[in-house]
Amino acid sequence: TSTSTIDHLNSQTNDGYSSTSTLGVSTINSDDSSQHPLLPVISSKNRRKNFFSCLTNNTTTMDTNEEQLINEDICLLDTKLPKELLLRIFSYIDYKSLCRCAQVSKYWNTLALDGSNWQSINLKSFQRDVDGIVLENLSKQCGSFLKRLDIENCKFINDHNMRNLSNNCPNLERLTVKHCTKLSNTSLYHLSKHCPYLNHINIASCHHIDDQGIKMISSNCSNLEWIDISWCMN
């Protein structure tokens, strides 16, 4: 990024409070030089809304003027580096930052939401915002790349959503659905049928799951090594 663009970005913050830069992402004024101005700070309701909008819509939120402002620098980077190398760079970015990158340009949106960058996802911190649409869109984007998923306390997730997840992500290895109270034996049936590599599952406090569901998944998932069924009252 050119010096003028960086100066313009940094000038958007003052007095230590976060603000919105010309890229449409949150920035922070910090004395720590290692704190990159584009690192995400998803704390407010609006930021969480933008985060999940990125996941569900798979589109950018920039207007024409914003794209023109950074078009020259971004295009230079995109044309100098091959897609494979850019994907490699993106693979080191956490999923919150990936959602920020997805808002930079249409090309970066494609790179940031590539399934290879989403092998391990923990949505526990966003439990009140995660619903079936978010989970299903994530599973479509990640596909066979997704191996670890934590959706603890995401109470809006149901059996239908888990069926789509298991169909879209056959290489799932670790799954935490603790306190996902709408799940039943049906979810375990689909997981046992479509996710043969599952070796770790936490279904604690899923009250609608009983012995029949436990038997299905233990019989069909030959790689299963660990299962938490605490507070499964049935």
TrEMBL record:
Residues 75-121 form the F-box domain. InterPro entries: F-box_dom (IPR001810), F-box_LRR-repeat (IPR050648), Leu-rich_rpt_Cys-con_subtyp (IPR006553), LRR_dom_sf (IPR032675). Residues 1-20 are annotated as: Disordered. GO terms for cellular component: cytoplasm. Pfam families: F-box-like. PROSITE patterns: FBOX. It comes from the Eukaryota. PANTHER family: MITOCHONDRIAL ATP SYNTHASE COUPLING FACTOR B (PTHR13382), SCF E3 UBIQUITIN LIGASE COMPLEX F-BOX PROTEIN POF2 (PTHR13382:SF67). This is F-box domain-containing protein.
